[in-house]
Amino acid sequence: MSVAAAVPPYFDRLIEGVRRGEASRWVHLGHWDEPPVAAGRAEFHRAQARLDALLLGMASLHDGLRVLDVGCGFGASLEAINRGFAGMLLCGVNVDPRQLEMCRGIDARRGNRFEWREADACRLPFAEASFDRVLCIEAMFHFSSRADFFAEAARVLAPGGLLVGSDILLQQPDAEALAAIRDGFGPWPEGDADHRALAAAAGLRCEAVVDATQATLPSHRYTTPSAPAAHPDAMVRAALALRALHERGRLRYLYLRCARTA
User: Fold this and answer.
1) Any idea what the CATH number is for the domain that residue 74 is in?
2) Cβ–Cβ under 8 Å, residues 44 and 30
3) 211, exposed or middle or buried, with CB in 10 Å at 0-12, 13-18, 19+?
């Protein structure tokens, strides 16, 4: 299978939405500290921006860092860093050349420099200790192995560097729901993964695991259509299955911060 063939099919629609101006550069759920009070895409985009800002805050950014975003989507997180910091190397990795081409439309500011690389998250094309921060926002379940990704993130981080991101874990999903999610959003390689154990095995120390399950739950009212579970479209079935698991307490959404100490 080619690298591009591994891109989940729902990105076809996201790409078209961005090209038509109907979607934002963010490719993740939103964060609410309180239940949303408004309908519409603008409210969801504000919540996506909040989630992004929370994770970038966990990354303890400052001027002059080398930042790698693995599974960078359309470049929204690196674009936010570009606006707020100076003298940064901002590198985005993705398996999809279409997404990277859209990222290349972001103009660098304040002495920052962008690099966009087509690569597999589990085989990063960088030397050891190449980065001070590694971001991975709502993408780990797309990778062939979380364990391999953690090992690669640890390898490319310099001592004192941080891995910051978010992940979605399914808790004992029924076979039909899991099949639907893997078909539309896959591969979803592990079940209820232990991020602290994954970090430790890779030589990282997991400093924070924040449960954002309830804070991200309202996102589905903006992302999931009203449709029967047996809908013929694979992406719709996947979205419905994910929402059902989230609403039934069989899904966890976590924010993570892990440090390389040596």
Assistant:
1) 3.40.50.150
2) yes
3) exposed
